[in-house]
Structures are given as C-alpha cells and as structure tokens.
Amino acid sequence: MNYYEKTIKSERLYEGAIFDMEKLTVELPNGKIAYRDVIRNPGASVIVPLTDDGYVIMVKQFRKPIEAVSLEVPAGKMDPGEDPLQCAQRELKEETGYTAEKFKKILTLHPAPAFADEALHVFVAKGLSKGEASPDEDEFIHAFKYKLDDVIQLIQDGVIRDSKTIASILFTARLLETGGLDF
Amino acid sequence: MNYYEKTIKSERLYEGAIFDMEKLTVELPNGKIAYRDVIRNPGASVIVPLTDDGYVIMVKQFRKPIEAVSLEVPAGKMDPGEDPLQCAQRELKEETGYTAEKFKKILTLHPAPAFADEALHVFVAKGLSKGEASPDEDEFIHAFKYKLDDVIQLIQDGVIRDSKTIASILFTARLLETGGLDF
C-alpha cells in the first residue's frame, strides 16, 4: 500500500516567534492534488525530573490557547544550534532551578502530526540538585514537587490534560515498574 | 500566585480547512504586553477500540507534517453540531469499519497547549463488530489489529511516536491493570 504524498509546491504563509506556517500542495497516492497547512517549529525537549525517593518536579504556568493554568513536566523549545540533551539541561535549570547528574532519552513524541512537524525529545533526569530557577523575564512559571503516584492520580482525575505530560509520566511509571530506568 | 494573561486584542490572521490562526495581544501578570500566536480548531475524538481478547484496532496513514506513515489509534475532528461521543462513533466506523456497543470517556488531552487550543476526547470502545470502512474519498487510511502488549512494545521501540496514541494506550493499559475498564 502506497500512502506517500509528494510535495508539489510549498508556500510560506506566516513567520512567527513560536512557529511558522506553510501551505503545501501535495499529490495524493491516487494522483489527485490536495493542500496541507503545516505548522513548523524547531522542536523541544521535555524532562521528567525524578528524585531518588519517588518524586517528580512539575511546573505550573498559564497556557493562553486553553485559557488555563496547566500542570506539566518541564519543557522548552530548542535554541538555534542546540541539541536535544543540551536543551533539556538548560530548560530544567531555567524552569525549576534543578540540575541533574544523569539524563536518559526515553521517547520521541509528535504532539500533533496531523498539522505540526514538532518533535518532542523526552528525557528522564536523575541525581537532582536544587538551585535557583531563572525563567525568561516575562515567563511566569513555578516548580512544584509531587509524588509520582499523585501525578498519576491527577491524570486519572482529569486535572492534568497536557498530552506530552501524560505520555511521559505514564511511560516513566511503566519503565520504573519494569526496571527500565536503572541508569 | 497570579498567572493569568488577559486578552487585550484578538486578530484573525488565517482561516484554513483544518485550523485557523489568531494573534492575541495579552497583558502579563506584571502588566507588560506580549503576543500569543494561537491555532484554533474544533477539537477531535480519539478511540481506543478494544476487543474482548486483548487486541486494539489501530490505523496507518501518511502524516505530511512529519513526512512519515504513522501508526495511531483512530481519531478525527468534530463536525459542526457533533458532540464528542457522536464524533467517536462516526470516526471509528469511517476509519476502521468497526462499530462498538459501548464507549467510555477516559481522558481529555491538550496535544499542544503552548500554541493550540485543541482538545482531544479519548474514548475506550468495547463490544466491537466488524463492517466496512468508509474513509473520505481522498483519505488513505487502513486499519490493523494489534495485541495491546505489542502496541506497548512499539511505543518502547520508538516506532509509535504520536503523543495522543501513547497517552491513550498507556492510560488504557493502566486502567485494565487496575480494573478501571469494567463497563
């Protein structure tokens, strides 16, 4: 079965601070022409900061698109020239103040593959030491410590709705249960 | 702590087939002005179709933004006037051919709360009967049956990268293990 959509034309419609937008003209497998609006951004790193005694460092911030304060694992987009691990180290420090001795990549996630090219690189961070957070000047974000089991309960209760957080936390819990996080 | 960003102005920059885009002018908690580019769409329903003998019905389709064939749980966006359950029933039938006797909502997900208002309504579907799929004319999508354990292995192997699929499958597995899916 051929699923491939060949790009015939690509038009940049918008360039923004967080993402750009392109309209692609594609040829479908049946030869017909169709259009795809695509959001492009540089990707981001996501960190699940795990303490030795079973806590996770989470962050709270206002998410304008959903008009809500959202409880999430720390994350942030890659700076130019940065690799995913460097981004994870920097964002963990900036958003929570914590540094970590060890990082292990556990997942790559596409949050919205129907309309965005974004890839999220998910790391578990261990060997945590607390320091001072240093968010961007106009970034209102604060770190809180939760027991992993309580984070899972907040998912079950519908309080945590951020998809990357749910995928990352549940996968981390599964790895812990199966001994897959001994690093 | 006040996190709220008040909307000062909202400007529609783009209207597309899949999403619209707005530029919002907001007032930050410190009184400063900032801008937020926001993708708006009507939301979608996601279905985890579970057979009595531990299989999940999955779909394969090409996702142009990531230039890859993606293995995902069935999902599709809400038609005007449709509620999430109606959308789940319709999309399950269209994409896989299956109908289900029972649907249970298990999660609401925000796939990209940093830049999109999209909400995904995730249902587990049980009591499945197989019929004919009826995708849209230019939609190239096919259904495949996988053991739930094999889907989890494909997540672990990095083959499945769609965030809604990973969140939905891992949460379903957890509910099954804790008896939370007896409906």
Automatic annotation (TrEMBL), chains A, B:
Please state every residue range assigned to the domain named Nudix hydrolase: 39-168
Give the top-rank taxon of the lineage listed in the UniProt record for this protein. Bacteria
Q: Which InterPro entries match?
A: NUDIX_hydrolase-like_dom_sf, NUDIX_hydrolase_CS, NUDIX_hydrolase_dom
Its needed co-factors are:
Mg(2+)
Is the keyword Hydrolase assigned to this protein?
yes
**Any one GO biological process:** nucleoside phosphate metabolic process
Q: List keywords of the entry alphabetically.
A: Hydrolase
**Presence of the UniProt keyword Kinase in the record:** no
Q: Name one GO molecular function term.
A: hydrolase activity
Q: Which GO terms describe its cellular component?
A: cytosol
**UniProt xrefs under PANTHER family:** NUDIX HYDROLASE DOMAIN-CONTAINING PROTEIN, UDP/ADP-SUGAR PYROPHOSPHATASE
Identification of the protein by name? ADP-ribose pyrophosphatase
Q: What is the species listed in this Swiss-Prot or TrEMBL entry? A: Thermoclostridium caenicola
